[in-house]
């Protein structure tokens, strides 16, 4: 990934790959930009611009080869090596994430869970080995982990982020409803489900009253 690639482009490419894999599973071998655009809720021109970044061009007659396009997007998005992920906070949300991602991405796997609750340490929970949070530096180094997921309460999130950064993690997916302070060489993606639900509820109410 180059420094000129925007976060929105990366997000759309990931979405395209998921949609294309669904097409593959249904036996589809080729797709046109307008068909992919409809499923992704973007324009055909946007799809073509995004796919230019991965260096794969389709045919005006046959469109894009689905299998080849999945491979091209994968070569662009994925590291050549496996990328290991750590999750901190093995509560209800953390367990759900472990279950959801188990085996879903061969090159991107959650290989270690951490929790301050001693009863969750030194166990395999939802297919993932869990450790005391004090062992994070050693485990992160051992498994060469550079990506982390935070699923702890808001009041604990910054402490966990600091521990992750100190251990060498430079990409964080944050489910805690609080902003995190990280150094410039680290990237944080915030997922605030409460804010998202409030937005959906607002527009649902607004549209219903105007219908």
Structural write-up:
With 211 residues, this protein is α/β, with parallel strands linked by helices. The protein has 2 domains: 7-76, Orthogonal Bundle (Arc Repressor Mutant, subunit A); 83-195, Rossmann fold (3-Layer(aba) Sandwich), CATH 3.40.50.720. It has helices spanning 7-25, 33-40, 44-52, 66-77, 92-101, 136-143, 154-167, 193-210; strands spanning 30-31, 64-65, 83-88, 108-115, 123-125, 128-132, 145-150, 171-174, 187-190. A 7-stranded mixed β-sheet has the order 5-6-4-3-7-8-9, with helices on both faces. The longest helix has 19 residues, at 7-25.
Alpha carbon gap, first and last residue: 44 Å
**Domain tally:** 2
What name does the CATH topology of the largest domain carry? Rossmann fold
> Could you give the order of strands across the largest sheet?
5-6-4-3-7-8-9
Helix amount, in percent? 40-55%
- List how many beta strands DSSP finds: 9
Report the order of strands and helices. HEHHEHEHEEEHEHEEH
